Amino acid sequence: MKNYNIQFDKNGRLRHFLTIEGLKRQLLVDILDTAESFSGVTAQSIKKVPLLRGETVVNLFFEPSTRTRTTFELAAKRLSADVLNINVTASATTKGETLLDTLHNLQAMHCDMFVVRHDRGGAAHFIAQHVAPHISVINAGDGRHAHPTQAMLDMFTIRRHKKEFAKLNVAIVGDILHSRVARSQIHALTTLGVNEVRVIGPETLIPCEVETLGVHVYHDLREGLRDVDVIIMLRLQHERMKGALLPSEHEYFRLYGLTEEKLAYAKPDVIVMHPGPINRGVEIDSSVADGPRSVILEQVTHGIAVRMAIMSMVLSGSASIPLSTKVNSEGEII
Predict the structure, then answer these.
(1) CB 321 within 8 Å of CB 91
(2) 10 Å Cβ neighbour count for 143?
(3) Residue 315 needs a FRET pair 20 to 30 A away by CA distance; which of 48, 93, 171, 200 works?
């Protein structure tokens, strides 16, 4: 996907959020700072701000999702937007209606944003190229290509614990080949200037071109985890695999599953992440997933603030609200 300019309007303002590839460091920092300003909203008695009041957001998911769809819905509602969840399996597309016809019908209902998840890479870009000028598109995951909001909530979680990206060694472990999350994470980490990004996994699950992205490849988990600050475990993408890429899940866990013994090779204050859903006993041992180094549930929590930030920046063009912001009983900023 080389047409990055589609993400910006003619004045250089963010119009769509489709991929992290090609974005500038300052924009990623602005997203993180804006998310920080929204992180306190959840603790308030009225968990809303009126920034997107009157806007309509459509969750258009062509793939199953729990965390991503739910956090997008919560984020939109906490920004006071109206939300429409489209059940694609029960929509007219199953009767032969084309994707463009579906989009045009939704546009006729005066919607303002499409949050799109699709099993084909490039779907979000395609939709962004064909929507009306007033509509924004956010990529909630497209095939094996990108999942930019997941990567940004991961960056937010890392910054909450580690503060300075430039000093960090980060390991991404598992099914790199099929993971849109890994691709977006690599672009985000390198753009934010981390010291080293490592990808760890069997040769069959590491794309041959990955080193061109500025990462170091390891096939031995213990060696790859040595002295890292952050470990990001990935889900095995069985639904995207073709052929026998793994001998067995048991063998995979023996070699690449994160256990307490393997965790000891990392730095003592390492944090452990996973985008979910977790396959316990395959990618990670329960003692690690539920242990003191795990920030997996924090990732889910931070997803709301980060998606609020991205949606508000895309739709309103506004930046952050002060951390001390309060709202009254009507949901108005005071």
Answers:
(1) no
(2) 17
(3) 93
User: CA-to-CA distance for 71 and 89, rounded, in angstroms?
Assistant: 21
Q: Tens digits of per-residue pLDDT, 130-157? A: 999 999 999 999 999 999 999 999 999 9
The Cα 24–Cα 62 span in angstroms is: 30
Structure tokens at 86: 């489209």
Mean of the pLDDT values across residues 71-100?
Answer: 82
CB neighbour class for 29 (10 Å; exposed up to 12, middle 13-18, buried from 19): middle
Within a 10 A sphere around the Cβ of 5, how many other Cβ atoms? 10
Contact 48, 79 (CB under 8 A): yes
Is the Cβ–Cβ distance between 48 and 333 less than 8 Å? Answer: no
Does residue 271 come out as left (phi exceeding 0), alpha (psi in the -120 to 50 range) or beta?
Answer: beta
Closest CA to 274 of 178, 190, 153: 153
Classify 296 as helix, strand or coil.
helix
Q: Residue 173 belongs to what H/E stretch? A: strand 169-173
Q: Is 230 helix (H, G, I), strand (E, B) or coil?
A: strand
d(CA 37, CA 15): 21
- DSSP 8-state symbol, 8: B
Q: Would you give the distance in Å from CA 271 to the centre of its chain?
A: 18
The amino acid that residue 12 corresponds to is G
Cα separation, 117 vs 70, in Å, equals: 13
Q: Is-contact 231 171, C-beta < 8 A?
A: yes
Measured distance CA(151)–CA(30) in Å, rounded: 15
Look-up of token digits 């994470």: 185
218-244 pLDDT, tens digit each = 999 999 999 999 999 999 866 544 444
Residue 171's closest CA among 208, 204, 219, 236?
A: 219
Q: Would you call 206 helix, strand, or coil by DSSP?
A: coil
Q: Which two tokens stand for residue 26?
A: 């300052």
d(CA 1, CA 274): 26
- pTM equals 0.90
